[in-house]
Amino acid sequence: AIQLTQSPSSLSASVGDRVTITCRASQGISSALAWYQQKPGKAPKLLIYDASSLESGVPSRFSGSGSGTDFTLTISSLQPEDFATYYCQQFNSYPHTFGQGTRLEIK
Amino acid sequence: EVQLVESGGGLVQPGRSLRLSCAASGFTFDDYAMHWVRQAPGKGLEWVSGISWNSGSIGYADSVKGRFTISRDNAKNSLYLQMNSLRAEDMALYYCAKGAGGNYLEYWGQGTLVTVSS
Question: How many H helices and E strands in chain B?
């Protein structure tokens, strides 16, 4: 199975900061990567698909990049509502897998 | 509006079985792949299983292969997960999710909780 490794596992940042989360795949997955945001007690929400496509309704401060094995999620200017846990997921081949998550906390 | 409503969770003893259901509405169900994802208390997301629109392509996580079976009934707009030989480590909130495009998870239900305990 393809393993996804996210870094960092947790991150403290302030409103207005630029934040980058990385996701590394154990083998190439082309652009078959998605990013999700999850807030406590809520279902995950799709942010980015196909590595860099912004899901409809998601603020443009979120962006994704990468292909092959290395991917990034960037939030250009953190807003209070962005403090949450973020997951990457590969859907290149079964079994689909998630990264372990990155918890973004308020500094 | 897309709606995914999971049901069938509950308390079950180790080694027993449980069948989860997901009722879908608000989209053409038989056009899309569907998936199950779980989340153990305080832990991260784990993809469990996926099924293509016509049931022709099915995948499972290594942790459930041979014990869980995914299926769908397009006439009833429903997705299922038959879970056999349940273990303590299967205890989690189980989400149903709609696949899109290359099979990313576009919409999610609110989940149904499975507790495995004697």
Answer: 0, 11
- The two beta strands, A19-25 and A4-7, are antiparallel
Is cis: bond before A8, omega within 30 of 0?
A: yes
A80/chain B closest Cα distance in angstroms: 22
Q: pLDDT digit string (tens) for A68-93?
A: 999 999 999 999 999 999 999 999 99
Residue B68 C-alpha, separation from nearest chain A C-alpha, in angstroms: 14
B108 contacts in A (CB within 8 Å)? 43-45
CA atoms within 13 A on the CB side of B23: 3
At residue A107, the pLDDT reads 87
- Asked if residues A53 and A67 have their Cβ atoms less than 8 Å apart, the reply is no
Report, as ranges of residue numbers, the positions in chain B whose pLDDT lies below 70: none
Tokens 């499975």 -> residue: B114
Spell out the SS3 assignment of A29-40. Answer: CCCCEEEEEECC
- Give me the residue from A46, A87, A92 closest to B106, CB to CB: A46
- Give one word for A85, left, alpha or beta, with left for phi > 0 and alpha for psi -120 to 50: beta
Which residues 84-113 of B have a C-beta within 8 angstroms of A? 95, 100-111
